[in-house]
Hints:
By secondary structure, the chain is α+β, with helices and mostly antiparallel strands. The chain has helices at 3-9, 51-70, 129-135, 158-178; strands at residues 24-32, 73-78, 89-94, 105-113, 118-126, 144-153, 187-194, 199-203, 206-215, 219-221.
Amino acid sequence: MRIALLFLSLGLAAQTFQPRISDILEGDLWAPFDPPVWEHPEIVSVRPGDDEYIARVMLEIARRSFSLMIFGGEITYTPYDRARGVPESVELTLGGEIPWGDPSLKVLTSHIDPKQNAVLTRFRYHLGAEQLWRLQPWRSGALSAAGGIGSVAWKWDADTYWAGMEQAIKEAVRAWLRARHFNKPREIIVRFNLREMPVFRLEAGQLVTRVKILMLPPEVRDYQHF
């Protein structure tokens, strides 16, 4: 399988590796080598398991991840509360987006790792002046660092990767808040920045995702007590 050639066919020329500089973001993404039947053929018109589909999913996750690194995002989390009959809900939104097909998004390398039975691809994004300006506040020392690991049932689509990121970011916020807020909140809203590309792996039918974030002080809404 020649994933690198497929990236070329999507208009993303492979680039020579250069040292990291301040206006460049880089990161590695992982994808299983042998995907099961794809369940959402309406999104991209390729056959289930097609190499082109793998490339498109990885490009989409790279696009969203770099967007979270540059523009940040917001997560709204309602914890599960059995006594009150409140189900858990999590919603992750982007603070801004790199457009699909942006020529600043490049593929550096792509290869199969037989030990992991996976395709590993390194991406690079070159920031423009406005994006550097948007990134600058997230490099402030006033932010709190947090990390989390989440898991979701595996399906071969970008939404599953996104859901895995959503759960991992939620767990990062929960871990940070647990030591500082001792009553179960009604809702938590947090603006955050993704510090680096998420790390993915497949375990027993679950996509396990690990993230590192920088976050602003959360807005914590408690239940009213009368």
